[in-house]
Amino acid sequence: QVQLVESGGGLVQAGDSLRLSCVASGLAASTYAMGWFRQAPGKEREFVTYISRIGGNTYYADSVKGRFTISRDNAKNTLYLQMNSLKPEDTAVYYCAASRKAYWSISDYYTSRSYDYWGQGTHVTVSS
User: Fold this and answer.
1) What angle do CA 122, 70, 84 make, to 5 degrees?
2) Helical H segments across 1-128, by residue range
3) I need a labelling partner for 67 at 20 to 30 A (CA). Which of 15, 44, 80, 127 fits?
């Protein structure tokens, strides 16, 4: 049974940093591309960032580019999201997702249907 468990969320002030983690079990991480999405209160879930199976390719939403960094440690079956210079508009529940998809177009990164497994989410609140 595949399980993704996020952690590292919390309440921080604008300008602070947080590092989210997502531990995967029941799958071999190196065979899955992974991503982070987020959902703010009253809004739809949106794409944040993507990383390929062995980490050689990454992609970011414009809203986080230059501030967030995605990385992975396949030996630990763990995905990370380093978030710097946080803004109040980054407040959301952050979800990690895993995908068996082998070939990606840019539009695929943004599409929830591209991902097969999802975590339960971790809350990030950024106060101004």
Assistant:
1) 75
2) 106-110
3) 44
